Amino acid sequence: MNTDVVIIGAGLVGASTALQLAMRGCHCTVIDKDSPGRHASGSNAGGLRQLNRDPAEIPLTVEAAKMWHDIESLVDSDCDARFPGQLRVAENQHDLDKLEQRAAMVRAMGYQHEEIIDKKELYQLVPALAPHCVGALICRGDGFARPYHALTAFRQKAESLGATFHSNTEAYSIEQEGDGWSVRTSQGTYNSKILVNCAGAWAGELAAKMHEPVPLSPKALMLMVTERLPHFVDPVMGAASRKLSFKQMQNGTLIIGGALVAKLDFAQGTTDIDWQQLAASAKTVTDFFPQLKNVRVVRAWAGIEGFMPDNIPVIGASKSMHNAYHAFGFSAHGLQLSPVIGRILAQLILDGSTELPIEPFNINRFNNQE
Predict the structure, then answer these.
(1) Which of the chain's ends, N or C, has fewer CB atoms near its CB within 10 Å?
(2) C-alpha span between 367 and 346 (Å, rounded)
């Protein structure tokens, strides 16, 4: 099969890249060894977060936030996106000092999206919060979406513009033939001028085949969801010094995370939930909201994601192969960035450059440290 661009990985970043390329007239074929969203893109907590990003990511996340706030114009769906803000709560003066330093650093970079609020405003925003907290860092434009709804919207919009998606299509080998690529898969061979590696936790294997090995580590982050509750909290909740991440969804359930890692058999693609860790996470939630102590958890799950040692992604052109590009290693915070990453890759492929600063995400950055 011949196509302009083969994208390996049908998660949000792959679908976003296909959409942006299709908007500019390219025919893209997106292949995935499983189904779209089977792993990280369909099983994450749905956070749309500018708050507390690595400084290198701030220009990208601010641009992505603009796209999310107008997402319906891009994908003909609101992706169930809501923007009630996000908080990192301080439990003591030490926490608050740390958050104030963070806010000052963001302001020094020329951005204003992170700000300190005092105890009075915190409890006006979250009156159900336990009474010991002293303030918070807030990003008022942050929020959440439903990941699988978002992925479906990106995929369907890309398909409407001519992109094709092939599930259960595992890439066995990739070979450069002249300036183009031949990708042999379980469903046949695809020939294209451009190859894009958006393979998530499996992207390191593809990068190695391009002679660009990277220290990517697959991990499985756990989430749990509660029974439905009366509405009691609007912002997405986090903490300055403890692993806390939870939000109340439109239907009243709570999605509880906190970067807790399940047991992973990567070769088999299976995970085992670590209930002791989840119990500790639930205890943290009840420390902040004691009224939740008798709420039932109805299910838990884990999604496989690729992590880089510095917890920021690889984005950009291959440094060793012609007409090859990478976007992977989002380290459990790729949903927010996905619209802008697709735009960046389309610009790199079609224009040769992007207006956004991506040098910190260079695939060679780990080699340069040696």
Answers:
(1) C
(2) 26
Strands 263-265 and 270-272: antiparallel
Instruction: State the Cα–Cα distance between residues 358 and 182, nearest whole angstrom.
Output: 28
Identify the CATH number of the domain in which residue 235 sits: 3.30.9.10
Domain endpoint, select from 307, 329, 344:
307
CA-based torsion, 178, 179, 185, 190: positive or negative: negative
- Among candidate residues 1, 29, 341, 332, the one with its CA nearest the CA of residue 191: 1
Does any domain span residue 123?
yes
Query: What predicted TM-score, i.e. pTM, was given to this entire model?
Result: 0.95
Amino acid at 349: I
DSSP-derived letter for residue 352 is S
Question: DSSP letter string over 15-64?
Answer: HHHHHHHHHTT--EEEE-SS-TTSSHHHHS--EE--TT--GGGHHHHHHH
> In sequence order, what E strands does 243-359 have?
245-248, 254-256, 263-265, 270-272, 297-307, 314-317, 324-328
CATH number for the domain spanning 58: value is 3.50.50.60
Q: Is residue 78 part of a domain?
A: no
Burial of 341-362, coded b for 16+ CB within 10 Å and e otherwise, reads bbbbbbbbbeeeebebebebbb
Burial class of residue 337 in the structure, from the number of CB atoms within 10 Å of its CB (0-12 exposed, 13-18 middle, 19+ buried): buried
Segments forming the whole domain that contains residue 339: 2-72+147-215+309-369
Distance between CA atoms of residues 172 and 40, nearest Å: 21
pLDDT in tens, 248-276: 999 999 999 888 899 999 999 899 999 99
Looking at the fold, whether 123 and 193 belong to one and the same domain comes out as no
Query: Same structural domain for residues 190 and 45?
Result: yes
> Do 243 and 123 lie in a common domain?
yes
What confidence tens digit (pLDDT) does each residue in 324-354 have?
999 999 998 999 999 999 999 999 999 999 9
CB 67 within 8 Å of CB 78 = no
